[in-house]
């Protein structure tokens, strides 16, 4: 029998993992994926099991706790935290799969990943679909057993349309044996996430492995699985820039206490501009963090009470996720600049924090257009997209 860890135990485990993850950070960066030995350590601490239902051996951790755990992991290394967040985020499909299929997929030490962008094309056939497609950004695919791909259901040469004018967009679940991994992951930041391309060619996917995440029937109930799914997916990555920024500011504080800039007889910390700027960076980080946790906790309480979450509230959460990433990257830029020439060396944590945070801001879930969606709903206008 699997015993779920208490929320404080998961956070304590994340804190205790910090030195180990930091010890792997250079190897993670060099390999452009989580090293197998580090994946084993993450399994031992049940990090990939946070969202998996208890009935399938998971921990069924509440979402606010998951967010705090991911932030803590990101203080040690952004790429490792990202891989954990994607693994946890994809495991939400377990609640939308028939029990027999979920038990087939979610065996001990299984990690799922993939990409939700609708880059696949599916043709209906008896018992399921024939699917072809290629997806980028399949984070963590190097340690996954199953991958998902967002797919449009085709009606001839065009996508099948649903009531309301939306295309029929499903999530297809593939075993690794059906997927070709293409190593395209040569990037500036979050190098250790292993976010390679994935491709399938005319693969049969049975109906029991086809999911409509937005309006799917839930075979497992609970507030974690009733939480708005796009908001949940945003929360699997939004806390990571917060953790990266915490690390960057702490690194700068240490550097400022030791570095004596050329041509001066005083340490970096004695400069007024450094004192001003580092306080500004701290303010940016803490205010963005506070807003993200405020709206996350509020929405979680709504879901626990069984209330319907409004489109406006969903958009506010997405804006808070984007704000966390954007303000974190700005705080990191300040710390990086204050570090001077020291920051540019590969041995400097500041340069990795800068690269990782700016890579995170390019994710669609954390992009600035989330502000626009929230603003439209606040002003009483319809959203430009229903994907909120």
How would you sum up this structure, described in words?
The structure is a single chain. The protein has 388 residues and is of the alpha+beta class. It has three domains: 7-101, Butyryl-Coa Dehydrogenase, subunit A, domain 1; 112-211, Beta Barrel (Butyryl-CoA Dehydrogenase, subunit A, domain 2), CATH 2.40.110.10; 227-378, Up-down Bundle (Butyryl-CoA Dehydrogenase, subunit A, domain 3). The chain is 47% helix and 15% strand. It has twelve helices and eight strands. The protein has helices at residues 7-31, 36-44, 63-76, 78-90, 99-105, 223-226, 229-235, 239-258, 272-304, 311-338, 349-360, 369-378, and strands at 112-125, 128-138, 146-155, 158-159, 169-175, 180-182, 196-206, 210-211. Strands 1, 2, 3, 4, 5, 6, 7 and 8 form an eight-stranded mixed sheet that branches. Strand 1 (112-125) and strand 2 form a beta hairpin. The relative contact order is 0.12. The mean pLDDT is 94.
List the helices and strands and how they pair.
Blueprint: H1 7-31, H2 36-44, H3 63-76, H4 78-90, H5 99-105, E1 112-125, E2 128-138, E3 146-155, E4 158-159, E5 169-175, E6 180-182, E7 196-206, E8 210-211, H6 223-226, H7 229-235, H8 239-258, H9 272-304, H10 311-338, H11 349-360, H12 369-378
Parallel strand pairs: 1-3
Antiparallel strand pairs: 1-2, 2-7, 3-4, 3-5, 5-8, 6-7
Helix pairs in contact: 1-3, 3-4, 3-8, 7-10, 8-9, 8-10, 8-11, 9-10, 10-11, 10-12
